[in-house]
């Protein structure tokens, strides 16, 4: 039998017969575990406060995007949850608050406790963490939690402590440190931005002054000039493209400067001990960059011919977004691999660093593709530009230079002003929405967790415990189980009868089958099938003396013997039933007859066959047990007297059915087994255990009498009905 079949059998048997055991075991286990869980989860009181902050994560502007104060929300959260920030909070907390983290811990390092127990047993010095390390671990593991409220940038910070004042200190310190770090980052970043923009502003201002001066001198010499209508439209379009190209080049140059700085910082770090993350293959990264540049070029070209809602434009945008995501992941993986093993960038902050490098690399690639597309469009327009005079060409060039430099100067001045504001600390990525609230008592989370574990374990033990017991001592329930255990043939399956008394009905007592007595109809036909099976077996072997045996009492062998005799009597066969259950005879009560003389008296030689039998029907007679098993009767079992009694019964009947005592309890019936022609073994569905049946089979086989088959008794009606679904329809037809 395979494992799946065994598990299925045990599960069905368990939930069909052992529900009370499951409930009782679960309740007892829960009664034991809950107090233990309650005591183990004891901890200092909890007070909780919360504050709401807003992390600026808006999309950067299309120009100078790497200098925008906003960063992706994932990067902001990584910084918020980083170990460096937590370390700064611990250093800034008041001494009383740090003492609360150390003296009243909510978390416990079970692995460290286990190591110390082992070291104590081995006589080694214990591992003792520093107070700063314990305070940092307690703060990160049990005192603070960060709950983002969707992608909006709102984050709830919850702080817990055993004292309301300490909870407020933790929440306020976290906010203050985050504001200070953000302000410091903004100041440092804005300083470099301001210096770069100031340099660019000076250059663009000088270029603007030079272009305006040249344009004025040209106007003074040539006077007012207006381009012909035939070239004005193309010239305006060309001027717009050249201005856009200048903006994109400026944006690309600044992104490249920032990316070069980050990569130089990465190259200057110590070489990692061992890379733990597999970097993206360089060939794949180059392929993604080429695809992104190509898509950007196609998008720029398509936008000159179609609207932004055109399907082709929308498709190209989707493709660009997909390639940008793939390229960003590839660059991020490569950067993370380069950072693995380095201590310069803490592990908690590596993700933010990799995100920044990936964003800048993707931006540079996209801008390069746009630059190539604009250059091609400008070259195409210049070819299609109608013929102009030398003065007209010079006028268009000077006017374009003035317009481009003026727009660049305006934009750079706006960004320069924003950088100066950020440098002064007036712009912050973190904004406080709600300050820390008044601390309130909080639920013991550790106790809830331990109680949940206790309930889960109790339920598991409640099922596994009885399940193991059922597996070790699982009963036989189906024909398949019996065949697997013994290899014996199943002659018939007797259903459990609830509607009527389980006695075989014949003649006038028999009723046509109906839905109310379906179980009884199947009961009667099961004995008819058993009768036919025995008759067919009797054609190949002598089968007149049949011993009906079972392993233990209460399995229904007496009922089987009695009803089988009535089934033989139905077809005119003369049957004598011998009650050989010497210790608990029951057939005389079933037949409603006296138990004065019977089978034991025949064995003792104190009575004849006629005096020892009682007529049940015209064809069936019963030899009850009679008097108690005396010494002469017990001696007769082991001598030729038993054979003489059975021969005498054979002379007056066609079949002798012998009801035996339980084979595993009363060994006297093995004498009868050796004198019988065949043995019919009765198995109670859902009660007989495999080991008992196997022991009974082995004992009976040693007598030398063949076991002709097995009768599966008291099978559930649904199991029997599986074989007889067509029968009821056929019978009523």
Question: Topology of this structure?
Answer:
Blueprint: H1 3-17, H2 19-40, E1 47-55, H3 73-80, H4 83-92, H5 95-103, H6 110-122, H7 131-143, E2 144-148, E3 154-161, H8 164-222, H9 229-267, H10 282-303, H11 311-339, H12 347-384, H13 390-423, E4 430-434, E5 440-441, H14 445-472, H15 479-486, E6 490-495, H16 518-538, E7 545-550, H17 557-570, E8 575-580, H18 587-591, H19 599-604, H20 609-612, E9 614-615, E10 620-623, H21 631-637, H22 640-650, E11 655-660, H23 669-675, E12 678-684, H24 690-701, E13 707-715, H25 717-732
Parallel strand pairs: 6-13, 7-11, 7-12, 8-10, 8-11, 12-13
Antiparallel strand pairs: 1-3, 1-4, 1-5, 2-3, 9-10
Summarize the model shown:
This protein is an alpha/beta fold and 733 residues long. The chain contains 25 helices and 13 strands.
